[in-house]
Amino acid sequence: MDETFLRRAIALSAEAAAAGDPPFGSLLVGPDGTVLAEERNTSVTDGDITAHPELKLARWAARELDRDVAAGTTMFTSCQPCGMCTGAIERSGLGRVVYALSGEQLSGLKSAEASALISEVPLRGPALYDEARVPVEAYYRR
Question: Less packed terminus of the chain by CB within 10 Å, N or C?
């Protein structure tokens, strides 16, 4: 059954590529095996670097699904979610993710030019812990 849903995610990725967007597609399948929602990457056509299908579906799930339903839901996606999408998936409460290509496999398929489009940003921190923790503690320890 997973292969059927993965094939649909791959078909959605082909639709994205045909529209001029990066080739990524995803769908959410409920606990009973029903397809709840589908998305494809629209980051180029929407002019929105965050328009990844996994992120769009995680946002939809967080808005539209009861936590118990979300926990029983599976996201099928054509490629392993990036860090941004993984964070959204975790926060949305989805039960699991099944992907066709790993991030490492994706990197191996990209040209050097395509790989150069995304670069790591140097991070520096933590700093000012005593000041930064005040609003965080106030929010999470209410």
Answer: C
Q: Which of 138, 129, 120, 16 is nearest to 78 (CA)?
A: 16
What is the DSSP secondary structure assignment for residue 66, as one 8-state letter?
A: -
75 touches 89 (CB < 8 A): yes
The answer to whether residues 97 and 89 touch, using CB atoms and an 8 Å cutoff, is yes
What is the three-class DSSP state of 97? strand
pTM of this prediction exceeds 0.85: yes
Whether the bond between 126 and the residue before it is cis, its omega within 30 degrees of 0, is yes
Question: Coil, strand or helix: which one is 74?
Answer: strand
Alpha-carbon span 21 to 16, nearest angstrom:
5
Residue type, 68: D
List, by residue number, the catalytic residues: 54
- Per residue in 22-72, pLDDT (tens digit) is 999 999 999 999 999 999 999 999 999 999 999 999 999 999 999 999 999
Task: List 89's β-bridge partners, or say none.
Answer: none
């791959």: which residue's tokens?
Answer: 10
Total number of residues shown for the chain: 142
First to last CA, the chain: 44
